[in-house]
Structure formats: structure tokens, C-alpha cells
Design goal:
Helix content is 58%, strand content 11%. It is an alpha+beta fold and 255 residues long. The chain has 2 domains: 53 residues; 197 residues, Glutaredoxin, CATH 3.40.30.10. Helix 2 runs antiparallel to helix 5, helix 3 packs across helix 9 and helix 4 runs antiparallel to helix 5. The radius of gyration is 25 Å and the shape is globular. The relative contact order is 0.14. About 13% of the residues have low confidence.
Length: 255
């Protein structure tokens, strides 16, 4: 009788151990499935952005589109170099981007406008663009051209108009003719001065400097964002948020 009870006790203990193992394995599988779902969601967002941004051929210097809508978006907002918004704004939202990047184009058209309307126009934050030229050989000259437009207070108009007329990456469209057309469409008044400055050592060197900044932060893709404000721990890296709401929440957290 004693032996029978002992066997039953051991059997019960073994079943309990097996149940614990099965439960642990189930939890592990659920965590793996959950992580996979998050990864797939991120991939889906990235694919959606690229698909939404790839519908037009673009790159036509003789037929720029959306000049009026770009002017309307930035009308009345202070600009200094590539800083958009009140220079006294306590929060600084920084974008590291490449003008040839199709995902940057999608951000310019879909993600950033609500942030500009809701947070930059009212002085909650200022938006800063820094070149992270990773796409191809025409990216750096395009970035320097934006800086030269910024020297005349039309930098964000230049960035946005370029994105609205972006061609296929590394297709050769971003030549001198296209860059000049964008400058004129963006409202750069002294095009001769713009043309001289975009080719100079000062602005080409600045493009190289911000490229190195982005690399030092560990960024590997564009656009990548960082933020700095009274409640942030110095410059905090945001990566690539998937919605305007994420950027606005980051502004709130840094305020």
C-alpha cells in the first residue's frame, strides 16, 4: 500500500513538472508570435509608406507640381537655414534625411504636415532638417542645394518641393537643371547666389558633417529622428516613427 502511494505521488509530481514545462513552452511560443507580429506590423508600415510614395515618375524640371500647396503649408512660419518654426521653441525635433529617399518623400507628404500644422505653427516645437546622404551620388549636391536655399529663408520650401517632385532614386534626375528649377519654384530670390553657395566648401562640408552625426548616432536609414527639450535626457533618438501621433507624443514628452 505504501509502495502504491509512493508511485502515485511520484506520478503526480512528474505530471506537475510536465505541466510547468508545457506552460513555459507555450509562453515562449506566445512571446515569439507576439514579437513576430510587431515586426510584421513595422514592415507593413514601411511597405505602405513606400507604396504610397511611389506612384509618380517625378523628376521633371520643366513641370514642377504642388508649388502652391508647399507655399501654403509654410506660409507664416519662421525659417532660418533648415530650422522651421519659432527659434525660441523649447523642443527641437530633428530629422536626418536624404532628398532622394522615397520614404522621406512619404514622410514629407503624409507624416510631417500634421506635426507642422499642430505643433510647429503654434510654437510647441521647431523642426530641423539635417542631411544624411545615403542613397547615391546626387544626394549630397541636393542636400547642399537645400542648405543654400535655407540661407535665403526658403530651405523648407526647397525640401518639400523637391520631395513632391522626386524622381526614381539614383535615376540621374537630380541634376543641375532639376535643382535649379526647385530653387526657383521654392521662391529663392537670388538664384545666382544660391548656385554659387551650393557648390562651395562651406555647405558641402556641412553635408558631410551631418552625415557623420547621423552615423555617430547609429542611424542606418532615412528618415531618422531625434529630439531635444527641457524634459529630455539631452538628445534622445526616436528612430523612424510610423505616425504623426508618435512624433507629437515625443514632443509632449520632451516639453
Amino acid at each position: 500500500m505504501s509502495n502504491k502511494r509512493e508511485r502515485e505521488k511520484r506520478r503526480e509530481e512528474r505530471l506537475q513538472e510536465e505541466t510547468k514545462v508545457d506552460s513555459g513552452e507555450r509562453r515562449t511560443r506566445l512571446l515569439q508570435i507576439g514579437a513576430g507580429a510587431v515586426f510584421l506590423a513595422i514592415v507593413a508600415v514601411a511597405v505602405l509608406i513606400v507604396v504610397n510614395s511611389g506612384g509618380s515618375s517625378g523628376g521633371d524640371a520643366s513641370n514642377l507640381k504642388d508649388v502652391g500647396s508647399v507655399d501654403k503649408l509654410f506660409n507664416g512660419i519662421p525659417q532660418e537655414e533648415l530650422v522651421l518654426g519659432d527659434p525660441k521653441a523649447k523642443v527641437e525635433l530633428i530629422e536626418y534625411g536624404d532628398l532622394q529617399c522615397p520614404v522621406c518623400k512619404a514622410f514629407a507628404e503624409e507624416i510631417l504636415p500634421p506635426v507642422i500644422e499642430n505643433r510647429v505653427k503654434n510654437g510647441d516645437a521647431k523642426l530641423v532638417f539635417r542631411n544624411f546622404t545615403i542613397i547615391g551620388p546626387q544626394s549630397a549636391p541636393a542636400g547642399a542645394a537645400a542648405l543654400a536655399a535655407g540661407a535665403q529663408g526658403r530651405g523648407w520650401n526647397y525640401l518639400d518641393l523637391f520631395y513632391h517632385n522626386q524622381g526614381k532614386e539614383n535615376s540621374g534626375y537630380a541634376d543641375d537643371e532639376f535643382l535649379t528649377a526647385v530653387a526657383k519654384g521654392a521662391g529663392v530670390k537670388d538664384v545666382a547666389k544660391w548656385d554659387e553657395e551650393r557648390k562651395g566648401a562651406k555647405l558641402t562640408g556641412e553635408v558631410e558633417d551631418t552625415f557623420e552625426q547621423a552615423q555617430n548616432f547609429g542611424f542606418t536609414g532615412t528618415p531618422s529622428f531625434a529630439i531635444k527639450g527641457p524634459s529630455s535626457n539631452g538628445i534622445e533618438l526616436l528612430g523612424t516613427p510610423s505616425s504623426p501621433q508618435e512624433l507629437e507624443e515625443a514632443i509632449d514628452d520632451a516639453s
